[in-house]
Design goal:
By secondary structure, the protein is an alpha+beta fold. The protein contains 3 helices and 9 strands.
């Protein structure tokens, strides 16, 4: 009885202290749209999206340029390096979004995930994505 109580207490403490650990399969084969940076809504005219595919390939649009590469997820930290990026000139507001996205992905970010929302908390920025799968 004491062993069962101790196991249940440990499980509850783990769940309350940050939830269940995010694993690769939680993130793969989904399409995410960026909705906020540091809690501030992203202008709806700026398209920034993220997809993580088979073998943890990563691609999307940062702000006005497309990116692609591969990512890793180690101890809850998502990191995509190196990334290939197209080189179109961006409007200033889109460039701000693009810089935040690319820096967060390449430097690494702690991942939080709840089926409909993905949060990437990096050194400088927190990116909030909403699930927008092509097929539901």
């Amino acid at each position: 009885m004491k062993l069962a109580l101790a196991a249940t207490t440990a499980l509850l403490l783990t769940a309350c202290s940050g939830g269940l650990k995010v694993v690769e399969s939680d993130l793969q084969h989904h399409h995410w749209n960026l909705t906020a940076i540091d809690g501030v809504a992203v202008n709806a005219d700026i398209k920034s999206e993220l997809e993580i595919g088979e073998h943890f390939s990563i691609n999307g649009r940062a702000g006005c340029n497309n990116f692609f590469g591969s990512a890793t997820l180690e101890q809850g930290v998502l990191k995509a390096e190196p990334l290939g990026v197209t080189q179109m000139a961006c409007a200033p507001e889109a460039q701000t979004v693009e810089t935040a996205v690319l820096n967060t992905l390449t430097k690494g970010a702690v991942v939080s995930h709840d089926n409909q929302q993905l949060e990437l908390k990096g050194e400088q920025h927190t990116l909030t994505y909403e699930l927008a799968d092509w097929m539901k």
